[in-house]
Amino acid sequence: MKRIAVFTSGGDAPGMNACIRAVVRGAVYHGIEVFGIRKGYSGMIAGDMYEMSSHSVSNIVQRGGTILKSARSKEFMTIEGREKAHKALVENGIEGLVAIGGNGTFTGAMIFEREFGIPTVGAPGTIDNDLYGTDYTIGFDTAVNTALDAIDRIRDTASSHDRVFFIEVMGRDSGYIAIQSGIAGGAEVVMVPEVLTPLSTVVDTLRQGWSRSKSSSIVVVSEGEEEGNATEIANKIKAQVNVDVDIRVTTLGHIQRGGSPSARDRILASRLGLGALEGLMAGQKNVMAGIINDDLVYTPFEDTIRLPKPINEDMLRMVKILSI
Ligand code: F6P
Predict the structure, then answer these.
(1) According to the model, what pLDDT value does residue 31 have?
(2) How far apart are CA 241 and CA 90, in angstroms?
């Protein structure tokens, strides 16, 4: 392989830049030309790509976001879009791709390889940590720490005013951010999409706390929670508790997607970027590089897309015990 390209796609995640850097510097080290494609599949269709050098990725290891920008492309879901992308890659002499993103990105890459034969190796970049085939995804650790910082701050004001706070964190259909930030932040309750938490259980836990003179409480709600968003859940709880309780809601939103990546994310991203590149060079395709038990592994896209990555439900039991 003489020339490859790297791109980021889907929701951005802190550490994507460290991953791009690893792909580019790895390619330079191995004597391969490397292009950067801007805005994911949209940029591929538009032929928006440029040659990168070691210098192109200077001073980015510490930066959040992605210097290549990211997008979710509807056009790439059509055969016409993929034909245009293929033409642009051929015109630029690109023989293989490193895709940094999540399952949407990998689904597109797999279809593209079957139709046009351009191989892709993926690196898991998403704050949600919802990808089978790696213990952690790039950006998750930073997002958890950002959420935790917010929970700690909210705890201060919650306890000054004897309030109950419902804090909504991201994660789409996955409770990983909720469970880890909730445990680290000493939440009284954590609600995740994977496990049903009846509202009566939330009410009981809050009541038990009040009976022990606990004046403030924090309920961490994952955005994909079945009972609704944090505001809807807070309203339902207020209607059920029947006592004069001061409830507030905070939705953390996209602040969880930004910021300087943690050391853990930078190291993970560096390993996965280099791992994806070297996998591609060794002839791998349609696989995602991941780290399991500290070992670099490659998992077929088919499995990362199809197989769930369950949360550790024992962690929820721990929340209950530790909030007593
Ligand atoms: O997948 C990452 C994520 O941040 C999810 O946690 C969230 O549901 C979604 O992306 C938000 O997407 P957007 O940035 O398009 O609003």
Answers:
(1) 98
(2) 64
